[in-house]
Amino acid sequence: MNFNEIPSDLLVPGGYIEFDASRAGTLSEPSIILLVGEKLAKATATLNAIHQIQAETAAIQLFGKDSPLHLMCLYALTNNYGCEIHAVAVEDETSVAPLDIEPLITAMGDDQYDFIACPYPDTAVMTLFRDECTRRFHAMQANRSHVFTAVDVAFADAKALTEGLNSSHITVIPVEEPTDALSLWVAAFVSIAGDRLHNDPAAPLTDVLLPSLVPPGKIYNGRETNERLHSGMSAWSVVGSNVYIRYLVTTYQMNASGDGDTAYRDIQVPEILKRYRRRLNYEINKTYISAGYKLAKNAADYAAGQRIVDVDELKAFLYAKYVELFMRDLGWMQDKETYRDNLILEIDTDNHDRVNYIDVPTLIGQFRVFAGQTQFITK
């Protein structure tokens, strides 16, 4: 047997027991919201400096009472319970055209920001955010961020924005009438959706209340809502005096070949994939790599108790995690037979310390539409 701390040639009489945490604990996954907005000139915050906000008093001191950013922070503090809340002041949009977002992206670095509220739907701003989010989602970064913005322009102009972005990392909320409350709309969607997606990235987010949000004068009918969803804009609804999330989509509409593609349409898809990648890497690292396992072509050739693994054991481990963790416990995946039948692992031919694999997880769906035909009879 292999031990980490007890020498194999120890002769001193006594009992020696070490502890191994590779089978204990689970991944802690905090989600972080970043609110982007404007402060008052007299407020103390430095532009593009990111602050964690834990109380309204801090937001008032940093950004000024009743400033757009203070009100965004207040909404998040009041309505979000599961995420860390961070905020950053940028230049007053009325003093620049367009807003220079590059200093903020530089300040973000590689730090984790899961949900970003940015009430500046300018094409140049959103394009920079799209490129930054694409960089973060790359396999070598594995640090996904999702940007929410809102537009108060006509449908044709909003459609031009979403089609130009075509990103699985950006959600656009259409308001389509001039308003000075865009920052609050964005804060509301990020706060409420971020809370739900933090708890469950596969959550449908259908008919979810956005507290305290005032309905605009323009309310879409069913046809208008459907057109906007197909154009990469998210949907909201109004019941009485309350606003609800109806359906959250990304601006992704076309693949690299320019063909219409729904792969990343729903916000749940990249959110599930983000968490799946993070959790799977954690399980493999904790159980095998950090635990000091060796890699062999056939672990059965070695004595029991040695920390030696082969691709057959790893394949069984991945399948078990898929069924027991990602399906049964978390409810993110389905169709274990497809996963089992398409799972391929092999030791790299050029690097015998490396295992390459291909898996085919089937993401769970969201129950949104119930359609049928009633064949009635008269007598």
How would you portray this structure in words?
- This protein has 379 residues and is an alpha/beta fold.
- It folds into two domains: 31-272, no CATH class; 294-379, no CATH class.
- Helix content is 34%, strand content 16%.
- It has helices at residues 56-63, 68-79, 102-108, 123-137, 155-165, 182-199, 222-230, 268-289, 311-329, 336-342; strands at residues 31-37, 50-52, 83-89, 115-117, 146-151, 170-174, 208-210, 235-239, 242-247, 294-295, 308-309, 333-334, 344-347, 355-358, 362-363.
- The strands form five sheets. It has a six-stranded mixed sheet, with helices on both faces.
- Strand 13 and strand 14 (355-358) form a beta hairpin.
- Helix 1 (56-63) packs antiparallel against helix 2 and helix 2 packs parallel to helix 6 (182-199).
- The protein is globular and about 80 Å long.
- The model has no long low-confidence stretch (mean pLDDT 94).
Q: How many helices does DSSP assign?
A: 10
SS content category: alpha/beta
How many domains make up the coordinates? Answer: 2
Number of DSSP E strands: 15
Ranges where pLDDT stays below 50 over 5 or more residues in a row are none
With strands numbered from the N-terminus, the spatial order across the biggest sheet is 2-3-1-4-5-6
What is the beta-strand fraction?
Answer: 15-25%
Largest sheet geometry: 6 strands, mixed
Gross geometry: globular
